[in-house]
Design goal:
The protein has 195 residues and is of the alpha/beta class. It contains 9 helices and 7 strands; from the N terminus they run βαβααββααββαααβα. The strands form 2 sheets. The protein has a 5-stranded parallel β-sheet, sandwiched between helices. A two-stranded antiparallel sheet has the order 3-4. A hairpin with a 2-residue loop joins β3 and β4. The radius of gyration is 17 Å and the shape is globular. It starts with a strand and ends with a helix.
């Protein structure tokens, strides 16, 4: 099974690109979505996150995202500790998931693919890019957040330039029509490599 990592900075449009691969029939694993499910369901993860962040980490069995986000973005060491709890379990879950797939390749969408070394488990990597101002504009509409919070998140992610240097494919996600053409082209190229 060929594993293709899909990454990009926050607001670059990874989810849009992932949906386009799904429309082409390619199974796509969205790591953030699966991590959230595991944080909700896994007793081990819950226990460890409560040990790390305290009793306020969960409210009525649900992850207290804003509480945790405030801690993480004021002290990035907490982000590393949280990732050390969650990432190994997501990696195991992904492995089990790939065993059920029957297509020539699968997509694994991970926001911090390079930052956590996940690119080493991929045969190819696609990075989605978009100008920072466009990304901020999208995120302000989507997340109802502030520019300063977004810039704090971006500071914890690699730059597009650093990601692009290590990528096999780059999709510039500025217009939907252009992005769709690029996805189709990358899809065909990956299929050729899988044969």
């Amino acid at each position: 099974m060929t594993i293709v990592g899909l990454t990009g900075g926050i607001g670059s449009g990874k989810t849009t690109v992932a949906r386009q691969f799904m429309a082409l029939g390619i199974p796509t694993y969205i790591a953030d979505v699966e991590a959230k499910k595991l944080m909700r369901k896994s007793k081990v993860i819950k226990r460890k996150l409560i040990q790390l962040f305290g009793d306020k980490a969960y409210i009525n069995g649900e992850l207290n995202k804003s509480f945790i986000a405030d801690i993480i973005f004021n002290d990035s060491s907490y982000l590393e500790k949280m990732n050390a709890i969650i990432h190994p379990r997501v990696a195991r879950h992904f492995k089990k998931w790939t065993l059920k797939q029957i297509t020539p390749y699968v997509i694994k969408e991970v926001a911090i693919l390079f930052e956590n070394g996940g690119n080493k488990q991929c045969d190819y990597v696609i990075t989605v890019t978009a100008p920072i101002e466009l990304r901020i504009e999208r995120l302000l509409k989507r997340d109802h957040t502030t520019k300063s919070k977004l810039k704090a998140i971006m500071k914890n992610q690699w730059s597009d330039d650093d990601k692009v240097k290590l990528s096999d494919f780059v999709i510039d996600n500025t217009t939907l029509e252009r992005t769709k053409k690029q996805v189709n082209k990358v899809h065909q190229e990956i299929l050729k490599k899988c044969i």
